[in-house]
Amino acid sequence: MYLYINPFANTDSCLTVWDWLCVLRLEQYSEAFRSEGLATLGQCRNLTPDQLERMGITLPGHQRRILASLNKTLGNKKERPVPKERTRFRSSAPVDCDLNSLVSPTSDTSLPPVPPRSTPNCPPQRFTSPLSPSPPARTPASPKLDRHAVKAPAVHSRAISQSSTHDPTHAPLHPPNVPSALTRPQTLAIQLPAQLLGSDGGRKISPVSPTASHSDDINVPPLPPKAGAVPKGPPPIPHRFPEVYSKGIISTAFITNVTSVGELKFEVVTNNRTFIFRAESEGERNDWVTVLKDCSRGRYWRSTMNPSSPLTPDYQGYLELRGLRSKLYTVVASDKVFLYKTMEDYRLGVGITSIEMNVGNVKDTDRRGFDLTTPYRIFSFIAESEQLREQWVDAMREAIDEALSNSEVAERIWAEPSNSFCADCEAPKPEWAAINLCVVVCKRCAGEHRGLGPSISKVRSLKMDKNIWTEELIQVFLLLGNKQVNSFWAANVPPSEALTSSSCSEERRRFITNKYRQGKYRKYHPLYGNQRELDNALCINVQCSDVLETLSLIFCGADVNCPTGVASCPSALSLANAHSQPLQAELIRHNLNTELPRSEVGGGMEAVHYSPPPCVSYNGFLFKTASMARAITERKAREEFSRRWCTLNDCTFSYYESDKNSNPNGALKASEIVCLAVDAPEKHGYDSTFELYSESERLYLFGTDDPDSHKEWVKSIAKSFIPATAEPLLRLAFERIGRLKCKDGLNLQTSKVGWFALVGSTLHAYLEDSKGEEIHLRKLNELSIQQDNEVLVLVERGRTLYIEGERKLDFAGWCGAIQAAAGSGGDTLSQQQLTETDIPVIVHSCIGYITQCGLTSEGIYRKSGVNSRVAALCERFRRDARSLCLREGEHQVDDVSNTLKRFFRELEMGLFTAEDACTWLTTAAIQDESKKISQYQLLFSRLPRVNKATLQALINHLYCVQRFSELNQMNLHNLAIVFGPTLFQTDGKDFSAGRVIEDLIQHYTLIFEVDEQQLNKQLEEITVIIKVRETLNTNTEPGGHFICTVYLEEKKETAEQHVKIPGSMTAAELTCEVLDRRNILAKDKEYWSCWEVSDKEEMERPLHYQERVLPILHSFGTDSHLLIKKHPAMEMMMVYLASKVDASKHGIMKFREERSILGLGLSSGSFHDRYFILNSSSLRMYKEVRSNRPERDWSVKNLKVYLGIKKKFRPPTWYLCCDIQSEMREWYATFLSIQYDGNVWPQNGLQQTRVSRVLPDTRHGNVSLIPLRGSENEMRNSVAAFSQDPLAVSEPTNHWD
């Protein structure tokens, strides 16, 4: 524990100057006082600032601290009356106190009350007197009470007794005959890690006994004259803190007696509690007793010090500390925060710990919570209300400022009158400065300066960054001043853009960026644009004293590192030093690496003046719904709209009850509007509607039946809030326009504001410091939402753009609109999601997959896939082709090839366009090959851009397919027969369409002017792919099926079954096949399932009966296997699901996420109770039931749920624990039901999933096959069999899907 010693044990005139200065932490001036003959506090009574200046105490802050302490301690003593009779008290005397030193119990009621003890090293003590009650303390119940009116409680003495007492008695006053040696000032903290013993001799021991552990950490507060570690009993205070913080503190102001009580023991007696400690040796015990007596003896001779001591509490009250589930009485005093268990403990001087605020930092966490962060621990507090939280945060931040501040530099800088106001917003008393820009700024502007980065603005505090403020730097700021510096930086600020002290953060950010990053308002130097002359002028000017001219030269483009041409002084900095210009050198030194403003001036060297944006005015009637805090998901009927008179004047959009009213119902400033969305016609009850999104997360919906009026309103409102730099956006027929924060791949450190407009599938953007650009959303490589729906990632070739969700409401609207625009917009080629080369993603994906996995498949493009799977693939590609990744095993080659053919057959306008299709067909009849090729080239050049790129990609692919016809049996003629009717969308009754495709493939290199060397390289790569696949498939069956070992009920040799696993086999089919081999009949209510088992992780997962087995095998490790066994909980799960009304669940589970200890290969982490909500889309985890915001959020569809206990678990895997088996079963059943849309088990049982797996004959599905081998005539005669679309027929009956 820490026993804090009262610094003013005797504040009378006999208190030595040394001890007084130690309390003030100004002991460095003791020699100055001694040289002036000032030895005691009384001799310093009449000190003045001039006298302190002559003594060498020049720092204004130190002078104020000394004079304030003298005034508080001695200021009320000049007229103090001398009592006629000594005050006597009725308290019994301590056993180690001379009874003759006690006074009569008679007391003079005219005397002021006895003051509390106070010291910078101990908790502040409230003071009350039975004769003159103190005003109530400033607590959360009375937050506005003046802090200086708060007094400490009366300090009570007590006689030694065998039980604690709460009866207050008066401490004796200082007797006049007490020697000065006994008035030893007590200024140090005593650390007493002590052994608390049980009752001894019937004495009742206090239940609260502060203790502390011995620590050698250098961060522990300084040791007192006596400190040590002794054994101790169970800690009496249930609050556990790191070793740097004590477990208990006892104010020595309340220690009434210290005595030895037996072998190696001593007791410390306070007003109502007794603490017994045990030392390690007799000498150690005696030393402790002596030191404690010396520290506490001054109590009995205290003077009437002014109760308004230096440590009067600044703020106090109850705060809840997270993790303890209880409230602590917290006191903020000067530069410390003290924690007590209760207010009563605070009154009695027994606390928990104190926190030095010179290492603290305070930040808000949620509505009522905030964190006090130190290097040793984070204290998470919860206030009783938002208002009280703000008051607590302000009080603690003031304590931090008190601990760190030194106003000497600030006072000197403010001596220049213009520096006493912010250079950007003119707020008074600015405490920050950009030392390279030479401007003094306020705290709010300093935050925006930091956002520019240290390469532009180097922000330092006037009060806390003392080391940076050299004498030369201070002189630079005094010489220039904000007024002169702004004559350069702010020479051309238009009134409409000027800041005020009440400006919002967005306005400050925009202004400061324009002013310093872009140099928009600066006064351009006459030499601007002439680099050589600028550098030469800089080298000349640094040799004289004109610092402002040097500033102008540097920030108009002069290179501070330019060569001077002087061998002895190669740089401008060395020139300044050589010519004894320290202020010039200081300015250059702070700008050696400064990034100069980027804006350019066209034409001459005249300063550029910026005019304010034109005023927009418009008015008329609109229909409005009530404002909303969430997105609109349903159609709004006409009845939900109200007619309002709306006006747009002076950049303010207002709406009134009618055109007769003068007071608006509401108004939106243009600066508050962040997004304008134009709805599709007839989306709501009125034909034309638009939405406005505000900074305050509100959505306003307006409508009208007049399309012209709607168009004018949209144009006018957009013009009012879109800046001039993004004015080209206003000329677009946008669907959504507004402001967003974003980062790009070149600078991910700081966000910048961008103005965006969405037009069709193109996103137009004007970012800071860049020209307008277009982002073709359908050509993106990736479009995703990351970081808990707060960042939209757009990946295009060579660049990634991160759009941040500064506000949830409008960001959600942007995400939905951009995702919809990036998807396929129709059935024409140009409306598809495209690659960078303008090829539809569906075509690119299918060609790539077949090139990798299907070039050796016999009958590729001729065999029919499973119709339902083809339809599903087409739908997924149509919904979002970019998000679908074709994988071997999961997708079949024939399904993919038929998907590609169906896409071209259903393509609106066709690949060859409706206008030119007939010309293509007639060209095939030309006999002259050279003329035919020329005509094909002409027709090809007339195709639209996307059609042209797609046709070339497809013919290139078919050319490669026929080059490997010895493997796939698809030669030139076979491909022409298949793709002719498909691409021309004909009935196939003649071969003219096939002849065109045949010509295009045969003359591919000539028609498309292909580089043959590049084509040969492509064929070589395909050959390598085929060889690699042949090598990898040596362990598979010739038919391409994998052979896998499956176990029945348990893993042992006698239960092994070797099964062929085709790519389409499901878990139910595998289960039935294994059961059939062992002649096991699945009875009713026997839920046989296939399980994925991991031996290493000791976990298992029942596969859903529709889940494909082959992808599971591909993801297997060597320690995993498949097991067929009964599902013991399936019946109970189905009963539970049948009883549920909705597919959701919530409740408490234990959560654990494994994290590796870097470098050790070990894991860490423990279970914590968390509240979970599982719904149809996500699993959300909250810290507790009352939490408003989830800690984590996972998409349910992407989760794999394993069962079992995991001893070793590698990150980033996490797992949950339920208290009982039935609870876990319910959670798992809900997971399955959501993931598979309620289809947990086959409706008719497992037997219905048995499918006879026979190889198909010459008919795949119900489509006849053209012979793959035979003469050309035979193939041409078989075209009639291709008279209808093989994919347009009904679903085959001999395939399980």
From TrEMBL:
Residues 266-297, 312-401, 615-722 form the PH domain. Keywords: Cytoplasm, GTPase activation, Metal-binding, Phosphoprotein, Repeat, Zinc, Zinc-finger. InterPro entries: Arf-Rho-GAP_ANK-PH_domain (IPR052227), ARFGAP/RecO (IPR037278), ArfGAP_dom (IPR001164), ArfGAP_dom_sf (IPR038508), PH-like_dom_sf (IPR011993), PH_domain (IPR001849), RA_dom (IPR000159), Rho_GTPase_activation_prot (IPR008936). Residues 16-76 form the SAM domain. It is found in: Cytoplasm. Residues 112-123 have a biased composition (Pro residues). Residues 407-532 form the Arf-GAP domain. Residues 101-110 have a biased composition (Polar residues). GO terms for molecular function: GTPase activator activity; phosphatidylinositol-3,4,5-trisphosphate binding; zinc ion binding. Signal peptide: none annotated. GO terms for cellular component: cytoplasm. Residues 1040-1129 form the Ras-associating domain. It comes from the Eukaryota. PROSITE patterns: ARFGAP, PH_DOMAIN, RA, RHOGAP, SAM_DOMAIN. Residues 832-1008 form the Rho-GAP domain. The keyword Ubl conjugation does not apply. Residues 73-181, 198-234 are annotated as: Disordered. SMART domains: ArfGap, PH, RhoGAP, SAM. Residues 76-88 have a biased composition (Basic and acidic residues). CDD domains: ArfGap_ARAP, PH3_ARAP, RhoGAP_ARAP. PANTHER family: ARF-GAP WITH RHO-GAP DOMAIN, ANK REPEAT AND PH DOMAIN-CONTAINING PROTEIN 1, RHO GTPASE ACTIVATING PROTEIN AT 15B, ISOFORM C. This is ArfGAP with RhoGAP domain, ankyrin repeat and PH domain 1. The lineage of its organism: Eukaryota, Metazoa, Chordata, Craniata, Vertebrata. The gene is LOC116045553.
